[in-house]
Amino acid sequence: MKSVLIIGFDGLQPSQVTPELMPNLARFAARGVFFENHHPVYPSLTRVNVASIATGRYPGNHGIAGNSFVAREFNESRVLPALLPELTELLKETGRFLLCPNLAQAVTGAGKTFVSLGMGSSGNAFIHGFSPDRPGAYTSHPEFSMPDALNVGVEHKYGKWPERQFPDLARLSYGARVMAEHLLPEYSPDVAVFWAGEPDVSQHKTGVSSAMARKGLAEADRAFATLMAYLEKSGKASDTDVIVVSDHGYSQVTDFVDVKRLAADAGFGPEPSKGGVVIAPNNGSVSFYVIGRSRDVADRLAAWLMAQPWCGALIADDSLRIEGAIAASRVAVHGERVPDIMMSFAWDSKPNSAGVPGHAYSCDHVIGEGDHGSMSGHEMRNTLIAAGPSFKSRMRIAMPTGNVDVAPTVLHLLGLAGGEAMDGRVVREAIAGGPSPESIECNTEVVEAGRKQNGLAFSQYVKVTTVGKTVYVDEGNRAGAPA
């Protein structure tokens, strides 16, 4: 019986899949399909993209608009981190935290089994594994499990989860053992997700491809080898499709920007009244929610942001029609819970000390550290590799793909319904017997906008590529920034 194993490496860049840094994954990539033009959704944040991987939907349609966001139907002036217990509180109060079904629900709803193990945030694991009142879903994370008794058995056999370290080698090794020795053989899942926190943990701490990050990459590669060894020894390699994915690319931090303080000084404070602005910092992007949705306040806020040297691309809710901003629908972020204004920090392609190109401003990290979340062309490229009985072999595909394509492709591989309602597409060009990549039409467009005010001119662009109905954001920045 065919099964699918999804292996996620948080923050893994395609350029890091090399024989020197990750020999086991590099060999796997050489025999399978390497997607050279893979994209996260914007904003290029982990929990936003985990939700898109799990649902096949854009942020406006799955409802996780940021690592921190405002759910107006819950509380229009409270910023929620996409973590436990806040997501469970949102679920309890509103009856939902995702706005659409996830992969776990689609799999268990078809009477099949879903297993996930995560070492990233609690929000990641909850988004992947949420499947209420349906048997056949099992999730393990250092902070919780579903069902609750799952971690009791895990820790009885393997001891308690290690505390997070930098690099997070012990937790990664522990998680790989639990997945390969316990969860996979115990439950024989039809779909399994293994989510590793490295190299993200290390790259946030010391920068992209730093010495610490290289240690994290090496341990991630050993974890990958552990999972592959289980498939071979158990005889399941011949009927298991393996998909390796990351959530986003990376940049080195140009400088820290205290947007909340600067905005408050400019008169955009968080007072819970009409005219107030609630600000959700999101690493390389910032989300702004105008209380009462005053267009006048939103327009003045946008004008102020356009005058700041650290402002890159500026996106506004379609209904506001802000001069100089690009409409959210043009970059596939429109929908419920989308902020009134989203600002991506300005970025460039200068290399860091390790020779990796890409710098951007941040509201959560400082010079010398790594970050993501912006519309940088370096953050809007991430990793997708696939191999197994359903996929073509020894192939590199330059066709654009994205994290929204993972869920519909998995459902297609298993012959399950639900993928047709998703925003992503089935990557048929990579599947055995599928069309050649060259035969699939794609269209690239540069969307521009600008505004002149007080003797200053702001102009910006966003580059998007479309395949069928699926939109991939390539990059976006203020015009004239040294890309």
Low-confidence parts lasting 5 or more residues at pLDDT below 50? none
CATH architecture of the domain at 3-250 and 372-430: 3-Layer(aba) Sandwich
The main sheet comes to:
9 strands, mixed
Shape: globular
Query: Could you tell me the number of beta strands?
Result: 25
Features:
26% strand, nine-stranded mixed β-sheet, five-stranded mixed β-sheet, 13 helices, globular, 483 residues, 28% helix, alpha/beta, 25 strands
Structural notes for this entry:
The protein is an alpha/beta fold. It has a domain of 307 residues: Alkaline Phosphatase, subunit A (3-Layer(aba) Sandwich), CATH 3.40.720. Helices cover 28% and strands 26% of the residues. The chain has a nine-stranded mixed sheet, sandwiched between helices. Helix 6 links the parallel strand 6 and strand 7. The longest helix is centred in the middle third of the chain and has 24 residues.
Short description:
The protein is 28% helix and 26% strand. It has 483 residues and is of the alpha/beta class.
Topology:
Blueprint: E1 3-9, H1 23-31, E2 33-35, E3 38-39, H2 46-55, H3 59-62, E4 68-69, E5 80-81, H4 86-94, H5 103-109, E6 114-118, H6 122-129, E7 137-141, E8 144-146, H7 150-158, H8 169-187, E9 191-196, H9 200-206, H10 211-234, E10 240-245, E11 251-256, H11 259-265, E12 277-282, E13 285-290, H12 295-306, E14 311-316, E15 326-327, E16 341-345, E17 347-351, E18 357-362, E19 370-371, E20 384-387, E21 395-397, E22 401-402, H13 406-414, E23 443-453, E24 456-467, E25 470-478
Parallel strand pairs: 1-9, 1-10, 2-21, 3-22, 6-7, 6-9, 11-18, 14-15
Antiparallel strand pairs: 2-20, 4-5, 7-8, 10-20, 11-19, 12-13, 13-16, 14-16, 17-18, 23-24, 24-25
Helix pairs in contact: 2-6, 8-10, 9-10
